[in-house]
Amino acid sequence: MSVQKVVLITGAGSGIGLAAARLYAERGYGVVAVDRDAERLAGLGGVATLAGDVADDATNAAAVELAQERFGRLDAAVLNAGIGGAGPLESDGALERFARILAVNVGGVASGVRAVVPAMRAVGGGAIVATSSVSGLRGDAHTWAYNASKAAIVNLVRGLAVDYASEGIRINAIAPGGTVTAMTAAQVADPWLGPAIAARIPMGRWSEPREQAEVVWFLTSSAASYVTGVTVPVDGGLSADNA
Ligand code: NAD
Q1: Cβ(37) to ligand 1 under 6 A?
Q2: How many Å lie between the centroid of ligand 1 and the Cα of residue 35?
Q3: Whose CA is nearest to atom 44 of ligand 1?
Q4: CA of 208 to the centre of ligand 1 (A)
Q5: Does residue 143 register a pLDDT over 80?
Q6: 166 C-alpha to center of ligand 1: Å?
Q7: Per-residue pLDDT tens for 114-130?
Q8: What angle, 0 to 180 degrees and rounded to 10, lies between the N-to-C axes of helices 57-71 and 108-122?
Q9: With 0-12 CB in 10 A as exposed, 13-18 as middle and 19+ as buried, what is 57?
Q10: C-alpha span between 222 and 71 (Å, rounded)
Q11: Residue 194: CB within 6 Å of ligand 1?
């Protein structure tokens, strides 16, 4: 298949990653979609898919190989797969869940960057976008592990952006606010919590995954050719509000 540009997207079976996969495909990109959940990927037509865990280096290496095999190049990567759910610090198994959250949310991004950089170098540069969160910019109740992992992405992106800037590889992140996806389905559906969360957001509503994907698109596009090392909040004003 002949395409001009190629993107690798992790966590592409659902939510923000799925919206990004659809958006890049609509706009003519070759898309390699990675998710640990093979069933979720099965619904994605017209893209190359790979089932695997981003915390495993072998998955990220295989995804880059698939991009080369199927499309012959790699220009962009959206390192978006993430999990939450450690629960309170003193709950049973909290530290084990914390280790797994760090392995996926932070380790998966580091491993992903390491895997894609040689392919981007081969085409003279590239753009990488990781998914942080407003939870990486401040703290939330019972969300300390996720907060820590998403804050780590903010500074990982800064450091790696500096390391790869001279090679024309830009590395940024988005910090989504509450977005309607499988991850938040229970909160959105909760008759008290869903509206209560929306009411805290200056724009007064949850985000749609496509609104996140559009900012990811911008950050990988030539319109953002001088932008690297930043985390862009996409949160309806939540992180701007001191209330
Ligand atoms: P989602 O659950 O709809 O999608 C996440 C996808 O990632 C799922 O398909 C899941 O199978 C996949 N995944 C999880 N762990 C994986 C792993 N180890 N390897 C490969 N795939 C894996 O959730 P979403 O809301 O679209 O989340 C996407 C990203 O956005 C995550 O990093 C999340 O932390 C972040 N985020 C979400 C929100 C929100 O409100 N939904 C807010 C801020 C940040």
Answers
A1: yes
A2: 9
A3: 133
A4: 14
A5: yes
A6: 31
A7: 999 999 999 999 999 99
A8: 30
A9: middle
A10: 20
A11: no
CB atoms within 10 A of CB 89: 11
For helices 15-26 and 209-220, angle between their N-to-C axes, nearest 10 degrees: 50
pLDDT tens for 23-72 read 999 999 999 999 999 999 998 988 999 999 999 999 999 999 999 999 99
Check pLDDT > 80 for residue 2: no
Pocket lining: 201 vs ligand 1, CB cutoff 6 Å: no
Which among 98, 180, 79 is positioned nearest to 144, based on CA atoms?
98
**What pTM was estimated for this model as a whole?**
0.98
Phi, psi of 135 (to 5 degrees): -70, -10
Active site residue 146: yes
Non-local (6+) Cβ contacts of 55 within 8 A are 100, 103, 104, 107, 108, 111
Atom 31 (ligand 1): residue with closest C-alpha?
82
Q: Which two tokens stand for residue 2?
A: 């002949």
Q: What tokens appear for 97 in the block?
A: 């869940």
At 215, is the pLDDT very low, low, confident or very high (cuts 50, 70, 90)? very high
Place of tokens 């869940």: 97
Which sign, positive or negative, has the C-alpha torsion 52, 151, 181, 23? negative
Is 107 a pocket residue for ligand 1 (Cβ < 6 Å)? no
The first and second tokens of residue 44, run together, are 């994605």
User: What is the pLDDT at residue 80?
Assistant: 98
Interface confidence (ipTM) of the complex: 0.99
Residue 1 has pLDDT above 70, yes or no: no
For ligand 1, whether the C-beta of 100 sits within 6 Å is no
Ligand 1 atom with least separation from CA of 108? 18
Kindly report the number of other CB atoms within 10 A of residue 195's CB atom.
Answer: 13
